[in-house]
Amino acid sequence: EHLANQIAAGEVVERPASVLKELIENAVDAGSTRVDVSAEEGGLNLLRVADDGSGIQPDDMLLAFQRHATSKISSGKDLFQIATLGFRGEALPSIAAVAKVKCVSATDDSGLGRLLEIEGGNMLANRDTNAPKGTEMVVKDLFYNTPARLKYMKTIQTELGHLSDVVYRQALARPDIAFTFSHNGNLLLRTPGNGDLRQVVAAIYGTASAKAMIAVNEESPDYTLIGLTAMPTETRANRNAVTVLVNGRYVRSQAVAQPLLQAYHTLLPLHRYPLTVLDLKMHPTLVDVNVHPAKLEVRFSKENELRAFVESAIKKALSTEAYIPS
Ligand code: ADP
Ligand code: MG
């Protein structure tokens, strides 16, 4: 069990940002309206995620730190219809194997909750405590017991960059959730949580960029594509400018990014990318998200149809703004 956790940890817990991704996904899965994230020293000293979601039942808390104890899959069939972000039940045990973890959680407003402390997979405390509704996860001294892994960490600034990417993507994916993010006590991001994607873009990329974006809103029998994409005059040098979500989950997908760029075709200078946030919604049976442990890769069952849909949706959005004659 211990060894299995350490092995799994190698897959799930590559660096502070991968821990943060799992913690935020859990907060989102718990139906939170508010997620507060803080980090110290690029997340290597401390990562903290506090939410106001469903909380964890006192008797389930220890279970949550055991392998494959996910509450999110109840039958084999569910594997093909995954609506939540996490579904393997591997994240928490993996994290607890390579760090000092404190979890405080309550499932209601009674003020009573449970506190659990685990260090390198060993339970230190499991007792009742005062807690507001929701969950607070604190991960300290990441990789303190795996020095080989610690050696691979880059500078604080690099790790912070990865942490920011994770928070930005989750914030872009869920404009209905109010996110804050601070590092070493400095507030780096605050989103309003009112459902307005343009305001999230403004908080991350600046008001000017947010204003210069075109709404995308397209529906077919199989797909819905909603989001914002930049006017061709507003481009970036980095392909990270393109954020693609599938059913609210951040993915890396050429099947969406390529037709997007194709729609801009002659409008984009070489090696420039339009700042874009697109959420592609479809029935979960049309997409396989269970391809990669980090869950970034997806496979679509009707890829050609999808590509055509994305290209025409973007062309239509651009033509509304008269960039492409319709
Ligand atoms: P998974 O997300 O794949 O189910 P995790 O290891 O990430 O597995 O989490 C294990 C379980 O702990 C979850 O299924 C959930 O029941 C519970 N849990 C973890 N974080 C939270 C949270 N922030 N709020 C409520 N429940 C949580
Ligand atoms: Mg999870």
SSE topology:
Elements: H1 2-12, H2 16-29, E1 34-40, E2 46-51, H3 61-64, H4 91-97, E3 100-106, E4 112-119, E5 122-130, E6 134-140, H5 147-151, H6 156-173, E7 178-183, E8 186-190, H7 197-205, H8 207-211, E9 213-219, E10 223-230, E11 235-236, E12 242-246, E13 249-251, H9 254-264, E14 273-274, E15 276-282, E16 287-288, E17 299-300, H10 303-320
Parallel strand pairs: 1-7, 12-15
Antiparallel strand pairs: 1-2, 2-6, 3-4, 3-6, 4-5, 7-8, 9-10, 10-15, 11-14, 12-13, 16-17
The protein binds adenosine-5'-diphosphate and magnesium ion.
Residues 22, 26-27, 30, 51, 53-56, 64, 70-72, 86-92, 135 line the site of adenosine-5'-diphosphate.
Q: How would you describe this protein?
A:
With 326 residues, this protein is an alpha+beta fold. 31% of the residues lie in helices and 29% in strands. The chain contains ten helices and 17 strands. The chain has helices spanning 2-12, 16-29, 61-64, 91-97, 147-151, 156-173, 197-205, 207-211, 254-264, 303-320; strands at 34-40, 46-51, 100-106, 112-119, 122-130, 134-140, 178-183, 186-190, 213-219, 223-230, 235-236, 242-246, 249-251, 273-274, 276-282, 287-288, 299-300. Strands 5-4-3-6-2-1-7-8 form an eight-stranded mixed β-sheet. Strands 9-10-15-12-13 form a five-stranded mixed β-sheet. A two-stranded antiparallel ribbon has the order 11-14. α1 crosses α4 (91-97), α2 (16-29) runs parallel beside α6 (156-173) and α9 (254-264) runs parallel beside α10 (303-320). The structure holds adenosine-5'-diphosphate and magnesium ion. Residues 22, 25-26, 86, 91 line the site of magnesium ion.
